[in-house]
Amino acid sequence: MRARRAHIDTYQQAVVYMRSDCDVCRAEGFEAQAQVEVINGQHRVLAILHRVDSDWLHHDEIALSDAAWKVLKVHEGVPLRVRHPQMLESLRHLRAKVYGARLDYGAFHALMQDIAAQRLTDLHLAAFVTACAGGRLDMDETIALTRAMIDVGERLQWPTAPVMDKHCVGGLPGNRTTLLVVPIVAACGVLMPKTSSRAITSPAGTADTMETLAPVTLDVTAMRRVVEREGACIVWGGAVQLSPADDVLIRVERPLDLDSDAQLVASVLSKKAAVGSQKVLVDVPVGPTAKVRSAEAAQSLAHALVTVGAAIGLEVEPLLTDGSQPVGRGIGPALEAMDVLAVLERRHDAPQDLRERALLLAGAVLEMAGKAAPGEGFLLAQRTLDEGRALAKFVSLCDAQGGMRVPPVAPYFAPVTAARPGVVTQIDNRRIARAAKLAGAPRDPAAGATLHVRLGDPVERGQPLFTLHADTPGELRYALDYVHQQPSIVAVKEHT
């Protein structure tokens, strides 16, 4: 079959298109949605087949999605081989898990190998993610899954110790403390090579926000170069392929909107171990509309993080924090980046809650690293920020990663105002995050929401509560329609 580029973006899923009446489809019995193996010399990819009944594709052509085209490193007209893929032994472990069986390390390792090699279809991946959600992995399985994720990828090592890391379990819009913690810690001489994820179920991930300020798609060689020069980095974990199976699973978790505790623990800690971290601080926001809603759930997650961390050689310190409302003002990649810059530049209008939260976390990391005595980390972090050393380190980090950028600004925006005077009694994290996503975040970096009030603030009728930002009028209307159906996203109680 002759290669043809379809110019269709199927994200990370490789897809190919063939005529239903072509000789290969008829001879091999390829059905729509079948998985096929496509080979170009030493390069091969497993792809989902879409059958075409139209003359835009010739009988001897196979059209490739952007993802398949990239993997095969092919050119127009190059002959490609197409065949049925070999049977996957790991699928029996997947079926066993669907029916409730416990899996051991060998079973998880076989699955992770095939997932990392992208041999499983999105249907298989969705079945695996679902079968492991809802408390269906016990502690031993979570440890086995984490080890398997680590073992099918690379594992970096660094010449100095300790190697520090920090992570937030998510669920709190605007909580972009990593972009402050890393330069503070690095400015104090502590090694912190930070790999971060893109958004899974939120309006922005750390990598999405950092990308509005500097390149984050660095390979391992470039990442090492930055860390050797600056003592830190903030890069997208998906580009360095340190836990490749996790990156594939995240692709499916995003549309499913699933992020269960066991998979969260395995995902986070496999990445930390792979990047060579030795000590990890984990921010666990707790609040009625956060990802973790109760003290009991937080303690259970904290116990899992510590236990699994110890099993794979990581010192993990969970820190339970206030998750009752968003952090800062911006919700969305560029809007959150502007908050970060305001804090780093020590501007008078910088969001103080973001500043204080970042100092708390940076101080805890400095104490874990032995750079500050117990109880003195906050003050060291504060001095580092107030003296401008954190800003200088951040600018230097951005330059090392490819150059600092100016975050984009959305051309369309609309305020959402208070229907009555009173006091703000609740800000729903989940629903304001959904509104920001409907406005286009994180796909459109400038899209999202800007929050104008905090819990306990008095407001007047008609006063802006938050503003939606979008790249197109249609997306703005879409988000506003949702907001108007959810009048208590920001709840205002009238004075009595």
UniProtKB/TrEMBL annotation:
Chain ranges of the Pyrimidine nucleoside phosphorylase C-terminal domain: 423-490
Coiled coil, from the record: none
Catalytic activity: thymidine + phosphate = 2-deoxy-alpha-D-ribose 1-phosphate + thymine
Gene3D superfamilies per the UniProt record, alphabetical: 1.20.970.50, Nucleoside phosphorylase/phosphoribosyltransferase catalytic domain (3.40.1030.10), Pyrimidine nucleoside phosphorylase-like, C-terminal domain (3.90.1170.30)
SUPFAM superfamilies linked to this entry: Nucleoside phosphorylase/phosphoribosyltransferase catalytic domain (SSF52418), Nucleoside phosphorylase/phosphoribosyltransferase N-terminal domain (SSF47648), Pyrimidine nucleoside phosphorylase C-terminal domain (SSF54680)
Cross-referenced SMART domains: PYNP_C
Matches recorded under InterPro entries: Glycosyl_Trfase_fam3, Glycosyl_Trfase_fam3_N_dom, Glycosyl_Trfase_fam3_N_dom_sf, Nuc_phospho_transferase, PYNP-like_C_sf, PYNP_C, Pyrmidine_PPase_CS, Thym_Pase_Put
Highest taxon, organism lineage: Bacteria
Keywords associated with the record: Glycosyltransferase, Transferase
Entry EC number(s): 2.4.2.4
Keyword Acetylation: no
Similarity comment: family membership: Belongs to the thymidine/pyrimidine-nucleoside phosphorylase family. Type 2 subfamily.
NCBIfam families from the UniProt entry: ARCH_P_rylase, PRK04350.1
Full protein name: Putative thymidine phosphorylase
Species whose genome carries this gene: Caldimonas aquatica
